[in-house]
Amino acid sequence: MVRSRALRASVAATLFLASLISPIYAQSEAMGPPCATASMVVSTGTSNTALSRCASTLIVYNVTNQEVFVKISNSASVTATLNDQSIPGGYFFRYTLATNQQQYIAAIVAANSTTLRLTTGLMR
Question: Global pTM?
Answer without folding.
Answer: 0.73
